[in-house]
Predict the 3D structure of the following.
Amino acid sequence: MHFLFAWRYFKAKKTTNAINIIAWISILAMLIGTAALILVLSVFNGFEGLVKSLYSSFYTDLKVFPAEGKVLTLSQSQLDQIKGVSGVNAWSFVLEEKALVQNGDYQSMVTIKGVDAQYPRVSGVARNVVRGEFTLGNAENPSLVLGSGVENALNVMADRTLLPLVVYLPDKQAGLSTDLMRSVRSQTALASGVFAIQKDFDNKYAITNLDFLRQMTGLREDQSGGLEIAITDPGQANALRDQIQALLGNNFKVMTRYEQNKGLYSVMRAEKWVIYAVLSLILVVAAFNMIGALTMLVLEKRKDTLVLHALGATPGFIQRIFITEGLLLALIGGGLGMILAIIIALGQQHFHWLSLGGGSFLISYFPVELHLADFLLVGATVFLISLLAAWIPARKAGETDGELRY
């Protein structure tokens, strides 16, 4: 019943035109606020999805680390246990060390990553080789697949050069020595290819043969720095992490891709929530317009309120009429705002209306992803703010008292 009253008040012509104007301004403000909030959250979703897709090319679904130290040793029985976990697709032993790579007068500090032959099955690096081949050689004749930034720093054309690069690593078995040449190990390696994924990786990494790096660091054949695992369903990463962790015990750490980059993802989530809080202020401003419109409506409908009182309507019933009126304004503004946001987002996805500019990004336009959770969050925010805004004039309407005169 109170909805019928609210709908009638919304449609009815007011004696004062200002009430209509303020009501439509509050609807317009709610529309703009809702659309802006959903669009900005969708842009954050787009960038988050882009970053995750880039990082998923380098970081695997799961990785096993030693709980202490840098050297991982897994027995064959432990590997058989991991192999028996349903959902594990493939794994690769890896080892990372800081190294100095030299090409004539050019040199660069890089993180050299040794991987075994299974690495292309667990990582997307091989699919992102832009020149040359993903060839790693062997322990005696190693090859390097360079990040594009490392290639530039060394001033080398990885797919064309015939001269080997020189790799220097600290000799951990040399102990303390003042002789610099005795405290490092060096070996030559040919550059075989170049990968390009993202600057953080392109400027930092060179991929090589695991046996070569073991030999340079003095590790045994059963030792490595970690075990990278690919699984068939990334949605089961947490469950498989717990299973493998239970199998290996507390001497090992098993981490998902998210946990390997927890800092990055936490910052992205925090930025999204801060933007959400700031843009919600637009809805608060719209709520002030709604309070003004409903307050004037309460004053105009004072006689109607007295009639309802005379007919036995309770103060709570009258309050619900004006609260419903406020929610009706929010429903119209919020609903139209969501429709507008969907139209703009779909247009951006298909026609790339807004470009990033500069030409230095991986993509030339703002990425947009619509998520149902954002619509539910914004809808709940609009409902809550509108409810609070409508409650103030509605409470005054419920307290209306006076004598009805004819």
In short: The longest strand covers residues 88-103. The two ends are 26 Å apart (CA to CA).
